[in-house]
């Protein structure tokens, strides 16, 4: 045993030293960093009430031949209704939010996009393929989110 003084690190310095050691010996793969950051971004509205899917034209079975170039979906939670229609190309989304006084954002793989609602709550947006969801913020601050929609 030596009589050399022990160097004490505060918590932040200790965590930084451990992080540096792990970066040198076990670097994180870029795919893992992207996955974790994407999922963390998705969790930012975790307190939003999840809207229920009440209609999906892709799941409806009518027994008749229908125009399948569009997909319509309806969601509801409390006093909020969200209706969306995806065009045949999948890039254009038309929708309506009730109440029209709410604010609505669309989250997709490129980020969060604030949608402009007209006086009836209607909107049109373009999106990249993949997954997306809508988050409605009511005047009183409550948030309602649709589940992630995969197209």
Folded structure, characterized:
With 151 residues, this protein is α+β, with helices and mostly antiparallel strands. It folds into two domains: 11-44, no CATH class; 47-59 and 70-150, Immunoglobulin-like (Sandwich). Helices cover 19% and strands 37% of the residues. The protein contains two helices and eleven strands. It has helices at residues 11-25, 30-42; strands at 49-50, 52-56, 71-77, 80-86, 92-98, 103-108, 111-115, 122-126, 131-137, 143-145, 149-150. The strands form two sheets. Strands 1, 6, 7, 9, 10 and 11 form a six-stranded mixed β-sheet that branches. Strands 2-3-4-5-8 form a five-stranded antiparallel β-sheet, with no helix packed on it.
The helix content is 10-25%
Q: Which class best fits the helix and strand makeup?
A: alpha+beta
The CATH class of the largest domain: Mainly Beta
The SSE order reads HHEEEEEEEEEEE
The biggest sheet, with number of strands, parallel, antiparallel or mixed sense and barrel status, is:
6 strands, mixed
Annotation, overall tally of beta strands: 11
Please indicate the count of domains. 2
The second-level CATH architecture of the largest domain is Sandwich
Shape: elongated
Question: What is the overall pLDDT average?
Answer: 85
Query: Under CATH, the topology of the largest domain is which?
Result: Immunoglobulin-like
Task: Give the number of helices.
Answer: 2
The value of Rg in angstroms is 23 Å
| The named CATH superfamily of the largest domain | Expansin, cellulose-binding-like domain
Low-confidence stretches: none
Oligomer: single chain
CA distance, first residue to last residue: 65 Å
Strand content: 35-45%
